[in-house]
Amino acid sequence: MPAKNMDEIVALCKRRGFIFQSSEIYGGLQGTYDFGPLGVELKNNLKNAWWEAMVYENDNIEGLDSSILTNPLVLKYSGHEETFSDPMVDCKSCNLRFREDQVPDHCKKEDLTEPRQFNLMFKTSVGPLEDGSNYAYLRPETAQQIFTNFKNVLDSTSKPIPFGIAQIGKAFRNEITPRNFIFRVREFEQMELEYFVMPGEDEDAHESWVQKRLDWWSNQGVPIKSIELYDVPTDELAHYSKKTVDLMYKFPHGLEELEGIANRTDFDLGSHSKKQDELKISSNVKKNKHSNSKMAVKNDSGDWIVPYVIEPSAGVERGFLAILNEAYTNEELEGGKNRIVLRLKPHLSPVKAAVIPLKKNNKDIVNTAKEIKDDLQKIGLGRIILENTGNIGKSYRKHDEIGTPLCITVDFDTLNDNSVTLRDRDSMNQTRLQVKELAMYIKDLIKK
Ligand code: ATP
Predict the structure, then answer these.
(1) Which helix (H) or strand (E) element contains residue 406?
(2) 447: CA distance to ligand 1 center in Å?
(3) Is the entire prediction scored with pTM above 0.90?
(4) Residues 14, 156 within the same domain
(5) How many domains does the chain have?
């Protein structure tokens, strides 16, 4: 049985230390969450899996880590100052504000005000003066600094088109109604690739990235069958997009966007370019009087061409939630008992293996277990922990719930024959293995 509702997942996250409400002791801050000891591991593993698939497995994709504070001109020319807004309505009966498409059933239509546009960007003052003259935005997407660094990366790496720039980092949106746990928050992380291609090659590249992203999610434990493709209709497309396909996942609260894959055309690079009349460029780019860079490449006939860009953009929090939802299983055991088990893909598991001494106070057993933990930790396969509670059953239950794929029990026999008991999370099968074979065993287990 998968999780029945969001409450079960929220409860598990709090109980085991995946996610906490931010600023909780002061009543929280709406739309913000903190990742606890296990949450930070799972989140890092997810981001690493994305980074490896993007940057390490593709020689024509490079990484970037740009600043969050953004010069307002970047977001003026990107179109965000003008158009990055949602329609907001007030309910005169309950005095609450909602995004127009998210008004709850209990508000009557006649009580709602006319929708007004509300810009979602956070603005902050820069430097000691607070008179509003020096301000910056917290980036609403990581993408813009990829575009502004296009020339820097291109010139420093000498890559021919097609090539991509990948970035993982925080983005901020002043959502009108943050909700559904970490699904819609005001501070979140994005994993974004901007993949630059020559005009004319964009449609094939777009199709191919949709497929690649489905395969990647499947490798993270979100199978293709649980994702629906939504071809965003023209009137709902973002201002920069020629075509967008959203990967829609059935979250506990409903079918919603997990990742968007957009064909952003030459809009961004074109809008950030100087001397636009020297470029072959689409008509809807913004006229620019501030940029000092030409975001273009020369083609074989010596013309300056502004590349098109395909953008797969995924939210880390939404991925985290989908992965937990898929992995969460409430399993009935023989004898009427049940267990909660997180069937995470082992490469995502916060803890790769728990080494458990059979006797809490037996020095020889505990020291041997410690040595095994230290040796396995050094190999760099992820987090291995020593779990010395003295209660094997309780340790197994805990590690089932947090998705640890393997428990390694050290007992009296280990002291004589150097073997340990392995207990598999999913099958609950137990086998014996020589200590010297453990590293290889775990390596195989967590292979993607
Ligand atoms: P939505 O329609 O749900 O508001 P969006 O279309 O505005 O999302 P994009 O601009 O395409 O989202 O952003 C790319 C990705 O960033 C989304 O697919 C999502 O995973 C993530 N994301 C966007 N907004 C949020 C948010 N408020 N909280 C968490 N993740 C978000």
Answers:
(1) strand 406-410
(2) 30
(3) yes
(4) yes
(5) 2
